[in-house]
Amino acid sequence: MSRRAGLAGVTRVVLAPDKFKGSLSAAEVCAALTEGLRVARPDVRTVSLPVADGGEGTVEAALSAGYRRVAVTAEGPTGELVDTAYAERDGTTIVELADACGLRRLPGGRPAPLTASSYGAGQVVAAAVRAGCRRVVLGIGGSASTDGGAGLVEALGAILLPAGPVEQRLRGGRALAALDGVDLSGLEPRLRDTELVVACDVDSPLLGPHGAAAVYGPQKGATPDDVAFLERALARWATVVAVETGTDHRWAPGAGAAGGVGFAALSLLGARLCPGIDLILDLVGIDDALRGADLVVTGEGSLDEQTLRGKAPAGVAARARAAGVPVVAVAGRSLLDPAALTGAGFSTVRTLAELEPDERVSLSQAADLLRRLAPRLIDRSWPDGPACSVAATRPADRTEAGDGR
């Protein structure tokens, strides 16, 4: 199909966006685009396939693809109980750390860099395993903690042994500094028969200048002193685990994901780490959806350099390109130049800023703007190359929940 000829022949469109953070879920983006396309072209058939990359929205994407929701009560990052869920189909479970104990669950949005824990994610994994699930996919984007995954394994039955008497059980990165050992004898026995796959999109080690504390700690509210403390605490945790297991994964790629959850999953749970977006796209059946499609529409709130490093739109574009299907992107704004967009596989990009330059208005009226923007995705006046109407005059000011931090 020639872009110069436009998209008049489009009859089947696959909608595979990520969320527009702060305004719309991926499913809501699909709904708005569907409505707008059908008003412009009643003959167009749409297939909605909300996607995610392992962070916020991962369970929702699985539910949209036909998984069933299983409710769970778990601890949030600072210990308060939250209502969360996992998605299940045919023995495979999708667990989303962000929904159990991620940044979005911090009470009042107040960071807790030293005390936030991954315990709640372990509770959800435990619930799935005890319900008979034998393959667990754990999406770890959007974490609030830097606890080396100690909370995760503690919820699964491990016992953390402090160096001296403590008045109360401590969690979070602060507790790691006082550890003397870890007892794995009580680890959930059904884990031995469970395949655990961790979906993440970073390759950071646990320690060092590119590690969990140094890179992601400040994003979770850690001061320079906090970062130095957490680095020492994580090193202590890594040593304790190495003594117990006889292996040392502190420098393994991905060990620093989600504040060290990747480390604990590798070292103590025998997990396999995989790129989040590819894993989720396989689980929701993107390749089947692409067969017979004339066009794919993907996108997220802000297209920027993070998008190109394994985020959902880039993953969708790669799959669409491999299937020979043109792909366009929609976004609140784009901070990528045309060369970068072309290199990532996007035929064109349309932004809400074309219709509404005020970002605050765009966030509050995103659904209406998407409905109005949708006809431009199949307009005959498509330019011969990426159309990015937003002048990138400042860096992105948000961190996506799916970054494996």
TrEMBL record:
The keyword Kinase applies. It holds the Pfam family Gly_kinase. The keyword DNA damage does not apply. Keywords: Kinase, Transferase. Residues 395-405 have a biased composition (Basic and acidic residues). PANTHER family: GLYCERATE KINASE. This is Glycerate kinase. It comes from Candidatus Protofrankia datiscae.
